[in-house]
Specification:
85% helix; mainly alpha
Length: 150
């Protein structure tokens, strides 16, 4: 597994955990009809900050741990290769395109839901969800392209 694949896998795992937390908190509020603005604002803040911080920290820790494991296996330290060639850049661009398409469709659905009478809090909650879902789709697509051997 290449450096890029490992980073994408860590990103995917953290996004899945965060979307799981978001749905576990948001769905009971929605089903009970208790979409209070102050609770949703704090949930959105936690989710957005967690997405940023968890991805950064997880990526750093993964790189450190993998470097240590590789040094132990090889019995010497070798400088890790963080080089991204044209293939890696193309795969990343295709993943970003999949993310943008997913997010755009999600925003369209969210606006339609708002147009058909749901509160604005539901629309914004859906946009936050689709932002996370777009990252997950992009990560899955990139892993698929790496495994396919594109």
């Amino acid at each position: 597994m290449s450096y890029q694949e490992k980073n994408i896998t860590v990103s995917l795992t953290s996004h899945l955990l965060i979307v799981g937390y978001y749905l576990m908190v948001w769905l009971p509020m929605f089903q009970a009809g208790e979409l209070a603005a102050n609770r949703l604002y704090s949930l959105w803040t936690v989710v957005i900050l967690a997405t940023i911080l968890v991805n950064i920290i997880a990526s750093i820790l993964t790189n450190i741990l993998l470097t240590i494991v590789e040094a132990i296996k090889a019995q010497k330290y070798e400088e890790p290769q963080f080089i991204a060639d044209e293939r890696d850049q193309l795969i990343e661009l295709k993943g970003v395109r999949a993310s943008y398409i997913t997010f755009s469709v999600g925003v369209l659905i969210s606006v339609l839901v708002f147009t058909f009478g749901q509160p604005a809090l539901v629309m914004i909650s859906m946009i936050v969800f689709f932002a996370l879902a777009a990252e997950i789709i992009g990560d899955i697509f990139q892993i698929y392209l790496y495994r396919k051997g594109f």
